[in-house]
Design a protein that fits this description.
Blueprint (H helix, E strand, L loop, with lengths): L1 H18 L2 H13 L19 H7 L8 E3 L16 H4 L2 E10 L2 E10 L8 E3 L29 E9 H4 L10 E2 L1 H11 L8 E5 L2 H8 L10 E2 L3 H8 L3 E4 L16 H10 L3 E3 L4 H10 L3 E6 L9 E3 L3 E3 L1
Parallel strand pairs: 5-7, 6-8, 7-9, 9-10
Antiparallel strand pairs: 1-13, 2-3, 4-10, 4-12, 5-11, 11-13
Length: about 325
């Protein structure tokens, strides 16, 4: 009876494996190859930020020569970047209320804010506790609070690199649904004489906000430009520290029927790489083209939310 049970279990496993799509099998292989569990020890809570060494910070500080700074974020408002057709507009609802208070003979105005920054609206960082793989977080942690965004309290300062895909393809924006490939990134490096190096913060512009400006709102959560999951192998080889985009880094519809957000899963859970979503890269793109310079000092200062799964951010590029 025991032998029969084991045989049925084996057949079940083989059958399940055969049901997986080719893309899912490839994804699982890449996930395993890029898994940084125990790479920096069992008590590591910052993942790929370990690539930003003291020498990396010092070399990055030498990049600015003009004293020009560019914000990569939007104002936190209730309407400027919302997608009217997105159900996540409710999740990202924003509310601001000024309050007056009298104290020690003065009339003070204070603020009350209420919003959820995750989703498709606000510029924000995804921390490593934002996602798990069946309850297991980065570096095999089981308590998400250990991976809170307060682990980045020293700030994130490194060389930033912009890969401008619409510029590469001589377009205003990339059509929704496109999967950015390894070749796209390598071609941009070659054409614009830039190299993604260890510890760099990589930013990918798709032209999402230019498309919104030209064509108006659309169902972005279900049709968006992002990275092909194979690109993560290149980013692992280059040992980048942080990945960001004017979208959510993932493309939709996804290529893998079993994985809705493969970039998030590989980055946050396997690699321990924080993500920057919904960045405003239009001003940065304009400045890079004006200066013919695609690298810059980048400063990211998430708020110190203890146990937080991320933070709204105002990232600053400095030339």
């Amino acid at each position: 009876m025991k032998r029969l049970f084991l045989l049925l279990l084996l057949i079940s496993k083989i059958s399940f494996s055969q049901e997986l799509s080719i893309e899912k099998k490839e994804f699982d292989k890449i996930y395993a190859e890029l898994d940084n569990t125990n790479k920096w020890g069992k008590e590591d809570y910052i993942g790929t930020l370990n690539y930003i060494t003291e020498d990396k910070i010092l070399s990055s500080l030498k990049i600015p020569e003009r004293g020009i700074s560019v914000s990569l974020s939007f104002n936190l408002t209730g309407d400027s970047t919302k997608l009217n057709s997105s159900k996540f507009d409710e999740l990202s609802k924003f509310n601001y209320k000024p309050l007056a208070i009298d104290f020690q003979g003065y009339n003070w105005i204070i603020d009350e804010y209420k919003f959820s920054y995750h989703g498709f609206t606000h510029s924000h960082m995804d921390g490593l506790s934002h996602l798990s793989n069946n309850g297991i977080y980065y570096n095999s942690h089981t308590k998400p609070e250990n991976l809170g965004v307060e682990n980045y309290s020293k700030g994130i300062i490194s060389k930033g690199v912009l890969i401008d895909i619409p510029l590469l393809k001589n377009k205003e924006f990339i059509e929704s649904g496109y999967k950015i490939s390894i070749n796209d990134i390598l071609e941009f490096e070659k054409k614009f004489n830039i190299e993604i190096e260890n510890g760099d913060i990589l930013l990918i512009r798709t032209g999402r906000w230019k498309e919104k400006e030209i064509n108006g709102d659309w169902d972005f959560p279900n049709k968006s430009v992002g990275l092909h999951y194979r690109v993560m192998t290149l980013l692992g080889e280059r040992k980048i520290s942080v990945l960001g985009s004017d979208g959510t880094n993932d493309s939709n519809p996804p290529l893998i029927k079993e994985e809705g957000s493969p970039i998030h899963k590989i980055a946050l859970v396997a690699m321990g790489m924080p993500l920057l979503d919904n960045l405003n890269l239009e001003g940065l793109s304009k400045k890079c083209k004006e200066l013919n310079q695609w690298e810059f000092l980048l400063s990211i200062q998430p708020l110190k939310f203890e146990g937080g799964t991320g933070s709204p951010i105002n990232s600053i590029a400095i030339f």
